[in-house]
């Protein structure tokens, strides 16, 4: 394990990181202990005073060793603009085909921090009785990268007050680790420790998920729950027969509604996303957004979870614009509330949505609000 630190001299036993504290708590632990060791007069890394990727890599290695102590699914501050990433049953809940792209750069300035991109598509079929779609998601952290493809099918059942939707989601995932990364540092020659790989490794996993989703566009509200991946697949790279890391059970629940403060001029749109993952802190994300003239959008987000000893994980601000009838753009910036905020410059996220041949004057849901594909 010492080979993953940037410091070559470690005379003190290393304390264990807190269990169940989330990825940000573990990162904070690593950075705080690295600083502590230097303050005791330990020589700096040959790479200088920066803590560098070595510490990050140690953390990533520990996360793979333990059985999924943190979220295995990517997070997005602007979840309301791509519900398909959290619930397959939302497919087809739009008046036209829609393509959504999201780019997220988390914890800017922190080398090896999470970076995520997703490209989604969905459309209604057969008089809006069916919905089909797909997600292509790429996420990276340290020397690890995950690429996921979800194929989505949803069946919409007309109800007296809306639609009940049932969605299915088969998926294929590729897990990849680059042990040839030039940023990695080891005090011993590569290959001398059989426990440390010297070549890139990858693994393919197939899984299956599903969800339900109820929508009432006339009243302006929706609610849904989904399990993105059902089977606890082995995602461990070890070749000794032991299984130390698996895909874990995740549960996503979301809901939202629209208040007409001034008809066609000002709307208040609160939305909530709840995320549960086995052996990880419970997360809640609340977004409150204003729609102005059905063209300009601004709001605040709050994420609870991560550092269980703090006031939450982050707060965010967002601003969006309906550029043209088919094109919507939104940008958000998150400010961390955990101890990790001392080591990064926040997180930025951009969303672009393109509506393919939308009916004239209807917007995305019949009211012009692009974020709420009920």
Averaged pLDDT: 78
Beta-strand share of residues: 35-45%
Low-confidence stretches: 1-22, 25-58, 60-70, 363-374
- Please bin the fraction of helical residues: under 10%
Number of strands: 15
Structural class: mainly beta
- CATH superfamily of the largest domain, by name, is monomeric porin ompg
**Strand order across the biggest sheet?**
1-2-3-4-5-6-7-8-10-11-12-13-14-15
> Could you name the CATH topology of the largest domain?
Porin
Structure description:
This protein has helices spanning 22-39, 52-65, and strands spanning 98-105, 115-125, 130-141, 144-159, 162-177, 201-216, 221-227, 250-257, 259-262, 266-277, 283-292, 296-304, 314-322, 327-336, 347-355. The protein has 2 helices and 15 strands. The relative contact order is 0.17. The chain has 2 domains: 2-62; 63-190 and 197-355, Porin, CATH 2.40.160. It is globular, with a radius of gyration of 22 Å. It has a 14-stranded antiparallel β-barrel with strand order 1-2-3-4-5-6-7-8-10-11-12-13-14-15. A hairpin with a 4-residue loop joins strand 13 and strand 14 (327-336).
């Amino acid at each position: 394990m010492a080979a993953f630190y940037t410091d070559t001299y470690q005379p003190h036993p290393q304390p264990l990181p807190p269990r169940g504290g989330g990825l940000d708590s573990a990162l904070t632990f690593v950075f705080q202990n690295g600083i502590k060791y230097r303050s005791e007069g330990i020589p700096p890394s040959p790479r200088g005073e920066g803590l560098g990727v070595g510490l990050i890599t140690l953390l990533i290695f520990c996360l793979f060793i333990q059985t999924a102590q943190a979220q295995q699914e990517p997070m997005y501050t602007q979840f309301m603009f791509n519900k398909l990433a959290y619930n397959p049953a939302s497919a087809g809940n739009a008046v036209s085909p829609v393509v959504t792209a999201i780019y997220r750069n988390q914890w800017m300035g922190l080398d090896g921090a999470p970076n995520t991109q997703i490209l989604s598509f969905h459309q209604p079929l057969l008089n809006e009785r069916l919905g089909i779609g797909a997600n292509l998601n790429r996420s990276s952290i340290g020397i690890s990268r995950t690429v996921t493809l979800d194929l989505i099918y949803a069946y919409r059942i007309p109800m007296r007050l809306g639609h009940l939707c049932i969605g299915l989601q088969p998926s294929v995932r590729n897990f990849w680790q680059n042990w040839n990364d030039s940023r990695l540092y080891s005090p011993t020659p590569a290959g001398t420790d059989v426990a440390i790989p010297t070549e890139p490794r990858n693994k393919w996993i197939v899984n299956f998920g599903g969800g339900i989703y109820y929508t009432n566009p006339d009243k302006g509200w929706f609610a849904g729950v989904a399990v993105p991946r059902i089977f606890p697949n082995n995602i461990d790279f070890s070749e000794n027969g032991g299984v130390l890391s698996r895909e874990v059970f995740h549960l996503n629940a979301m809901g939202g509604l629209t208040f007409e403060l001034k008809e066609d001029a000002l709307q208040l749109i609160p939305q909530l996303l709840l995320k549960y993952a086995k052996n990880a802190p419970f997360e809640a994300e609340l977004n409150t957004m204003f729609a102005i003239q059905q063209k300009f959008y601004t709001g605040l987000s709050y994420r609870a979870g991560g550092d269980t000893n703090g006031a939450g994980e982050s707060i965010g601000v967002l601003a969006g614009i309906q550029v043209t009838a088919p094109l919507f753009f939104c940008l958000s910036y998150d400010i961390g509330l955990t101890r990790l905020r001392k080591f990064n410059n926040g997180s930025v996220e951009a969303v672009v949505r393109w509506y393919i041949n939308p009916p004239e004057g209807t917007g995305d849901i019949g009211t012009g609000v692009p974020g709420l594909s009920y």
